[in-house]
């Protein structure tokens, strides 16, 4: 066997020796399995891949991959991921989070890693519930949701993750489903993007919020409830491909093809149109089919590259510098000891 053959990694090579301890039937298994396949397909190197997570069911993800990983604290994974990327820009950094970890205590950190366009791929597993802490409502739970912490039903307006990511200026925004074919396609696109990539993955918590996304997973009916996004293609959906989305008075509406409506009358997807992406992010079931795929993708300067440029400019202007020089720069103070009247030393 040649060295080239030996260097090719399979999905099994990305599996760690840890027992996977999610509940049987959890959607996280599907995401993990597809991630391992995608890493192998893309020729990723274990020593160059880093997975960073916060707290929650999703955040056990780094344990189950044979790569570098960090299991950090609640909501702070973006800060750690940013530090890793700045310290070693050549690493492929992924952040794994959930709707609780990423949008509640971690919402502020998430916003800033996105607006800075740090080259980190962020996967947010959205099951619309707190699974690890036994089923309390989360920032994405629907209004009226009854849980142990909302026995009368939630009165909160739920967060729309994609709208938040777009408002925070993420340069790549997408949505996919844990058990759908579009998961692999989106993960591959995410891996290829340079900049802040945000992906919402609808994930089933079969213990505390089972079938929350059944409208998008039922094999017999899902094509009537989702619209698959393709760049420069019309928004057509339905099991028989006979329905579409068009804009009417700047608002989307569902129409039927063949009744005076042609494909050219429909809304055409443009991944570079931020306003259109935001309109799509506001479409939700049951009023609309929910868009799946890449909403928005643009190229922009990455935070770590701009920072490195500043460092290089500073070195050119001031020299390499040393730690001693840094400590002695600016205002410095010397604390001298003196003796009191009894001859004892005092500070």
Question: What are the main properties of this structure?
Answer:
single chain, 347 residues, alpha/beta, Rossmann fold, 8-stranded mixed beta sheet, 13 strands, disordered N terminus
List the helices and strands and how they pair.
Elements: H1 3-6, H2 28-41, E1 49-53, E2 68-71, H3 77-87, E3 92-98, H4 99-105, H5 107-115, E4 120-126, H6 161-167, E5 172-177, H7 182-192, E6 197-202, H8 214-217, E7 226-228, E8 236-237, E9 243-248, E10 251-256, H9 274-281, E11 290-297, H10 303-318, H11 323-328, E12 338-339, E13 345-346
Parallel strand pairs: 1-2, 1-3, 3-4, 4-6, 5-6, 7-11
Antiparallel strand pairs: 5-11, 8-9, 9-10, 12-13
Helix pairs in contact: 2-7, 3-5, 4-5, 6-9
Can you give a write-up of this model?
The structure is a single chain. Strands 2-1-3-4-6-5-11-7 form an eight-stranded mixed beta sheet, with helices on both faces. The protein has helices spanning 3-6, 28-41, 77-87, 99-105, 107-115, 161-167, 182-192, 214-217, 274-281, 303-318, 323-328, and strands spanning 49-53, 68-71, 92-98, 120-126, 172-177, 197-202, 226-228, 236-237, 243-248, 251-256, 290-297, 338-339, 345-346. The chain has 347 residues and is of the alpha/beta class. It folds into two domains: 9-228 and 271-304, Thiamin diphosphate (ThDP)-binding fold, Pyr/PP domains (Rossmann fold, 3-Layer(aba) Sandwich), CATH 3.40.50.970; 234-268, no CATH class. The chain has eleven helices and 13 strands. α3 packs parallel to α5 and α4 crosses α5 (107-115). 28% of the residues lie in helices and 18% in strands.
């Amino acid at each position: 066997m040649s060295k080239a053959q030996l260097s090719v990694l399979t999905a099994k090579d990305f599996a760690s020796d840890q027992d996977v301890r999610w509940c049987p039937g959890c959607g996280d298994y599907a995401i993990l399995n597809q991630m391992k396949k995608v890493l192998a397909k893309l020729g990723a190197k274990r020593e160059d891949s880093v997975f960073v997570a916060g707290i929650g069911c999703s955040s056990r993800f780094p344990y189950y991959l044979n790569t570098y990983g960090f299991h950090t604290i609640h909501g702070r994974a973006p800060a750690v991921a940013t530090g890793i990327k700045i310290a070693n820009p050549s690493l492929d950094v992924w952040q794994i989070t959930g709707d609780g970890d990423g949008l509640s205590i971690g919402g502020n950190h998430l916003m800033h890693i996105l607006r800075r366009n740090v080259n980190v791929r962020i996967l947010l597993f959205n099951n619309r519930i707190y699974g690890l802490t036994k089923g309390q409502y989360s920032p994405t739970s629907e209004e009226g949701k009854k849980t142990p912490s909302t026995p009368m039903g939630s009165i909160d307006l739920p967060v729309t993750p994609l709208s938040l990511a777009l408002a925070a200026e993420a340069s790549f925004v997408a949505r996919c489903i844990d058990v759908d074919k579009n998961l692999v396609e989106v993960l591959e696109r995410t891996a290829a993007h340079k900049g802040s990539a945000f992906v919402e993955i609808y994930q089933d918590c079969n213990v505390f919020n089972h079938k929350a996304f059944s409208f998008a997973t039922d094999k017999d009916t899902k094509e009537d409830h989702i619209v698959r996004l393709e760049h420069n293609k019309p928004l057509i959906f339905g099991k028989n491909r006979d329905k579409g989305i068009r804009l009417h008075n700047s608002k989307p509406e569902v129409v039927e093809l063949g009744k005076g409506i042609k494909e050219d009358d429909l809304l055409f997807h443009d991944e570079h149109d931020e306003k259109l992406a935001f309109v799509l992010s506001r479409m939700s079931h049951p009023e609309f089919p929910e868009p799946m795929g890449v909403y928005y993708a643009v190229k922009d300067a990455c935070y770590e590259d701009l920072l490195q440029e500043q460092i290089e400019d500073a070195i050119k202007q001031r020299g390499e510098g040393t730690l001693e020089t840094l400590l002695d720069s600016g205002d410095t103070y010397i604390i001298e000891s003196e003796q009191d009247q009894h001859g004892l030393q005092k500070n």
